[in-house]
Design brief:
The complex is a heterodimer of chains A (about 210) and B (about 375).
Chain A lengths: L5 E6 L3 H11 L3 E7 L2 H11 L3 E5 L7 H8 L5 E5 L5 H8 L4 E4 L4 H12 L7 H18 L6 H11 L4 H8 L3 H29 L4
Helix pairs in contact in A: 2-3, 3-4, 6-7, 7-9, 8-9
Chain B lengths: L1 H6 L2 H27 L7 H24 L1 H4 L2 H21 L16 H13 L1 H9 L1 H11 L7 H63 L4 H19 L9 H13 L6 E6 L7 H21 L5 E7 L5 E7 L15 H11 L3 E6 L5 E6 L10
Parallel strand pairs in B: 1-2
Antiparallel strand pairs in B: 2-3, 3-5, 4-5
Helix pairs in contact in B: 2-3, 2-6, 3-5, 5-6, 5-8, 6-7, 6-9, 7-9, 8-9, 9-10, 11-12, 12-13
The chains are: A alpha/beta (about 210), B alpha+beta (about 375).
Chain lengths: ~210, ~375
Amino acid sequence: MTASPIRTVLADDHELMRSGLRGELGDRFEVVGEADDADGAIDVITARSPDLVVCDLHMPRGGGLAVVQRCATVCPIVILTVSEAERDLLDAVASGAAGYLLKTTPVDELRDALTAAAAGEPVFSPSLAALVLGEFRRLAKAADADPLTEREREVLQLVARGKTYKELGVGLGISPRTAENHVRNILGKLHLSRRSDLVRYAVEHGLD
Amino acid sequence: MVHHRSTLFPTGLTVIRALVIARWIALAWMIAIVVFDRAELRHPIVAWLAVGVTFALTATSTWLVRTHPARLAGTAFVSCEVALALGLSIVDGYVFEPGHVFGTTQSLATQWPLLAMASAGVALGPLVAGALGLLVGPAEWIGAILNGFDAFVPRQVVSFIATSLFFAAVGVVVGWLARQLRRVEGEIADRRARDEVGRVLHDTVLQTLALVERRTSTTDPELADAARTADRDLRAFLFGSTSRSVADLESRVRSEIERVRTGHTTPVTVSVLDDGCGLDDRAQQLVARAIAEAVANALQHAAATRVVVFVETDDGGQVFASVADDGVGFDPSVPRTSHGLDRSVIGRIEELGGRVEITSAPGDGTEVCLWTGSRARGSSA
């Protein structure tokens, strides 16, 4: 990790935010491209194929959701947002974002989380876990079948309570790696459930 | 102006447009009656004059709906229409041969009393429309007298009273529905406006505050603190209790936590999954206070870098809450005199018949878990 810096693309329509981030990221990251809207971000990501994208949720002409939908397979995308009360935040995560960070996240935590994201770990904050837990409950009620296993629900609840993978591994008698895999599976299921929602919507509305 | 604005709520406008079409149908119907029953007319010129006046009103309404739709709901137009409906009910008895009014043939007034009551209901409200509806019976009564009927035949009088009551009811019902719709649509419009304001503030001001907070946290702690406070107040307004009319568990928890957070810089993240809390207002308030006190305790004593609050309800409507910090922790086996949790948290929850569990170790943070109700163990692990 220390050998070569993480090649990062920053997408945010606030120039000040980008320059602030650029300064804060430090030596571990190398900013290889910047964009101030979704189209620009998609172009830069396609051209530079970075290791990591840090992308604002709301930008003119399409925000983080559009970027995630187009580029989630290229590299991990971490969504930056000013609040968790955003309707499309969960959509972005469900579409394949590696997670999200609040713009008020302290610098050290931000760097650590982004490093983990670049290494392919989901950035799964307690509030995101709670958001996902709530989403699955909604799905379970609507579909009358819970897509989550008992263990996955436990993992989600423990993450929502602020436990690290290590701590919740100890609590459940599993390794941190297994705990992380559970989180990955949960995100996969979220992704799938969202897609089947779309399929159902398309069928109901006669779209092909 | 204010009057016009208030009468022309979106559905009201739709009703008024629909009434224009209904007027043309009523006019056509009226002409058909005059043509087919022409043999029974004793004053055909008056009948055609009535048709002419009705046409004038119908044409005027068509013109108004294109140019000044608000005027269709104005007192002037509605008065004309009610007057026309009453006039036609009277003239009906005058233009036809005696015996017409209680005969099988159609009345010249056709649907006009109904249209007039619908207009009046939308434009003038249930009381006025209801009162105007009462006039239809007497108008028909006069028509019947002009048609040669005896004024005080009890069965006929009863019939006119029934007519009055019917049209009064139409006026009241339409007026009441219109009023309800106007209120609901007003609320929706207010809500939209508020959401729009919220969105704009969110996209601009919160972004800027977050930026100030980040950029000044090391160089200018005071400014960073000011930005944090402004950020918090704005959030509380946009997402918090002030934007909800009904206090629910989430807004209670958030506002109680906001109260104890003041003056502390440690970030506190709060997640509430409320799938239907079964506790009454007082119990919800107690739980919210207990949670907030646990947060206050963490902020004051734990020297934590973050505090995570998680609240959920179970199928039975009972509450589970966890307040976790990554601070200094303590050894729970060592008796302690004042770590603040005993009375403020445990006392409140035990009052509700619930229980509290504290997990901690020196250097390893603290988690306070609380359950309301007597369930042995909540959905926690």
